[in-house]
Amino acid sequence: EKGGFRSFMDKEIHDQPHAVADTLLGRTDATGRLVLDEMRIDESVLRAVDKIVVVACGTAAYAGHVAKYAIEHWCRIPVEVELAHEFRYRDPVVNERTLVVAVSQSGETMDTLMAVRHAKEQGATTLAIVNTHGSTIPRESDAALYTHAGPEIAVASTKAFLAQITAAYLLGLYLAQLRGNKFADEIALVLDELREIPDKIQQVLDRAGRVREIARWMVDTQSVLFLGRHVGYPVAMEGALKLKELAYIHAEGFAAGELKHGPIALIEPGQPVFVVVPSPRGRDSLHSKIVSNIQEIRARGARTLVIAEEGDEAVRPFADEVFTVPQTSTLLAPLLTVVPLQIFACELATAKGLDVDQPRNLAKSVTVE
Ligand code: M6R
Fold it and tell me: Is 101 helix (H, G, I), strand (E, B) or coil?
């Protein structure tokens, strides 16, 4: 059932082009307008929403972070992302005009379910972005937007993460369409670009030989840092989480702008640092800022492992290794840039002889608080 792969995780990483393509399938009508059939929420309610709160845990919460950047940009609605277990135990400002979006692969995560219940009690509208049909979170939510990643067996989430990000983009584009804002004309262009993503993920998979090789050399590494800015920041945190849970290596993801506020003190000669670089064709300042971050850590001896867009020559002089991904717009890039990090963690853990499908102390779905 592993389809010739060494592990379910390896297989699921390779399933990602399908997970994204299937999640995009059948979402537009004959005129190209987005139709999210499962969204059983009245359009007038969605038009009146003045705040979105994404609640989730772990990897699903990082998908929520990406969603925040995209939805705020496209819809101009404020989006907060909160770990579900924190949301519930404070006194969050949530009311009838709040849309609470619960993101979950299993649909059974107790912390996330309790957050949904709390949101409903406050009168919020609740929407579940979930992979598992018939699970509890979509059943208790006002509406569901299903990801079509197929069953995810490995404890570490990979293809569900990409499908969650894809579904979150669809939600953002749908809300922009519904509210007819100034971005509405560009929706079709973003959808076209999204449809090209599965092929581009395949290209990243096809050229993963080098990242696998580096991972195998790094079996004795004690600590790896991950840096990103903008949507690269949640990608960095996800890269770190994958390495912790699979390879039991200390790993931390930082927003690159935070470096000089503390974490740069961690840099000593030989420290491996992955850096997720945004497209140089996007906002200029974003790219040049991260290039200077790479220079800063390189000057202090860091070993820089850079994930950058094809054709980005500016990063090369400061990178010990460059793993390239095909060109896409800045907001969609996480669907490509996270893939080498998943492969790195999976390969390194496998090389250490660890069971990547069943890491120690972890369960696939956490059904206790
Ligand atoms: O089933 P869920 O998406 O609600 O699960 C949330 C987290 O428990 C999950 O993403 C966890 O962080 C994974 N082990 C990450 O690989």
Answer: strand
* Helix, strand, coil abundance in the chain, percent, nearest 5: 50, 15, 35
For the chain, state the CA radius of gyration: 20
Q: Give the residue, by CA position, lying nearest to ligand 1 atom 12.
A: 58
Which one of the listed residues 120, 289, 352, 364 is annotated catalytic?
364
Ligand 1 atom closest to residue 58's alpha carbon, by position in its atom list: 12
The secondary element (H helix, E strand) that includes residue 250 is strand 250-255
Q: With contact defined as beta carbons under 8 Å apart, do 202 and 162 qualify? A: no
User: What number does the ligand 1 atom closest to the CA of 158 have?
Assistant: 16
How remote is the CA of residue 99 from the centroid of ligand 1, in Å?
Answer: 22
Q: Which residue has the tokens 């064709």?
A: 281
CA of 116 to the centre of ligand 1 (A): 16
Q: Which residue minimizes the CA distance to atom 8 of ligand 1?
A: 58
337 contacts 79 by C-beta, under 8 angstroms: no
Structure tokens given for 17? 């082009």
Helix (H, G, I), strand (E, B) or coil at 126: strand
Q: Which residues line ligand 1 (CB under 6 A)?
A: 57-60, 104-106, 109, 112, 155-157, 245, 362, 365-366
| CA-based nearest residue to 266, from 283, 275, 280, 254 | 254
Please, are residues 239 and 274 in contact by the beta-carbon 8 Å criterion? yes
Residue pLDDT, tens place only, 254-283: 999 999 999 999 999 999 999 999 999 887
Instruction: Name the band, by pLDDT with cuts 50, 70 and 90, for residue 364.
Output: confident
84, 59 Cβ separation under 8 angstroms:
no
364 noted as active-site residue: yes
Ligand 1 centre from 93 Cα, in Å? Answer: 25
Angle value at C-alpha 207, between 202 and 208, nearest 5 degrees: 100
Residue 336 gets the label, from left (phi > 0), alpha (psi -120 to 50) or beta, of alpha
pTM: 0.97
Dump pLDDT digits (tens) for 169-211. 999 999 999 988 777 778 999 999 999 999 999 999 999 999 9
- What is the token pair recorded at 304? 């820089």
Question: In whole angstroms, how far apart are CA 342 and each of 12, 41, 237, 259, 337?
Answer: 10, 35, 12, 23, 10
